[in-house]
Amino acid sequence: MAIDKVTSAAIADDAVTSAKVSYNKNQFRNTIINGDMTQSQRGSDINDVAHGGYCTDRFRFHKANTGELVMNFDKVTDVPSSQGFRNSLKLTVGTAESATASNELVGIGQRIEAQNLQYLKFGTSSAETLTLSFWVKSSVTGTYAAFMFQQDASSSPDRRYYSKTFTIDSADTWEKKTIQITGNQDDVITNDNGIGLDFRIILSAGSGLTSGSSGAWGSDTNSAVGQTANFSGTSSATFFLTGVQVEAGTSASDFEFLPVDVNLRRCQRYYQKMILVRSGSYYASASTTVRSGQTSLPTYMRANASISFSSQNYGNASSLTVDGTDEGHFNTYVTAGGAGGFTWEADVVAAAEL
């Protein structure tokens, strides 16, 4: 019986390289986490969001030097049609700001961890251009600004800002916006777990922050160059946002959808919730402090977690405290309410936001 001879041929190196490059070449290209607004661990309805408060996961609300403003947040299902999105972030003006001070700034955005941005090569002549893209719908039309803020910039001026404008053309209509951001060749992004870049969409800005140079890295007068829309001064105004993406390059690619479990774990690096139940051996008498165990967090966090408890339910214990935390664990102690065994249950929040 004849046996066919099997021959092999060498595969050219460039073919292998090409295959490697084409396989998932853009995976995790979006430096924004939860840009499709699917995760909202703090809740989907928050009234009077505080300065520095969070809306959908990773999206931080900023209001500086306001006197009256009340902003409310909802996670909703109003989205641009046929784009694959299922959720958006909605902001509603509850109480409008009657007058805008020169140093007033209101916006929504995300702080991006520095060690995730090293590939941008900031601080060198090869600094990458960034492209910001997002879907937006607002009841207030006009010219808005978006900015990038590099907090650890060391060249003059320190703490450098780069802003550009976009226009909401039609009220209450979903529109996609794309903005290019030139890489900062002067300032290195420190390779650590701190803030690398702070991205924000500006809703309202005072005159002292709108008169810098558009499309250039400069001082805080560059925060909102060209901003004229006054969303925060308009009672009951609404602003919807989804599909936020920041990527290296000079053009916007399609939004990078991630599996829901992957998206959640990325958010949990900065904030996570859990329900914890503990029980233990008998203690001698009231007021005795007893260690009730070490707890492992579902996801390792950016830094040592700040732990807080709510909905606490003690069984023969009078208090619950934390002693010793790291990125993945925390220790708990209970104070005895009397002799006997202890049991406690609590909702636990671990936070390590930027």
How would you state the average pLDDT, rounded? 90
CATH class of the largest domain: Mainly Beta
Structure class: mainly beta
Share of residues in helices: under 10%
Rounded to the nearest angstrom, the distance between the terminal CA atoms is 72 Å
What order do the strands of the largest sheet run in, or round the barrel if closed?
Answer: 1-3-4-11-6-9
Could you say which overall geometry the principal axes of the C-alpha atoms support?
globular
Low-pLDDT regions = 1-11, 13-24
| Structure summary, number of beta strands | 17
Q: For this structure, what is the CATH homologous superfamily of the largest domain? A: Galactose-binding domain-like
Q: Please give the count of helices.
A: 2
Number of structurally distinct domains: 2
Radius of gyration equals 25 Å
General description of the model:
- The structure is a single chain.
- The protein is mostly beta strands.
- It folds into 2 domains: 28-267, Jelly Rolls (Sandwich), CATH 2.60.120; 270-351, Sandwich (Immunoglobulin-like).
- Helix content is 5%, strand content 42%.
- It has 2 helices and 17 strands.
- The protein has helices spanning 13-22, 260-268, and strands spanning 45-46, 60-64, 70-76, 88-95, 105-113, 130-138, 142-150, 160-168, 175-181, 195-205, 238-248, 271-283, 289-296, 306-315, 317-325, 329-336, 340-351.
- The strands form 4 sheets. Strands 1-3-4-11-6-9 form a 6-stranded antiparallel sheet, with no helix packed on it. A 5-stranded antiparallel sheet has the order 2-5-10-7-8, with no helix packed on it.
- The longest helix is centred in the first third of the chain and has 10 residues, at 13-22.
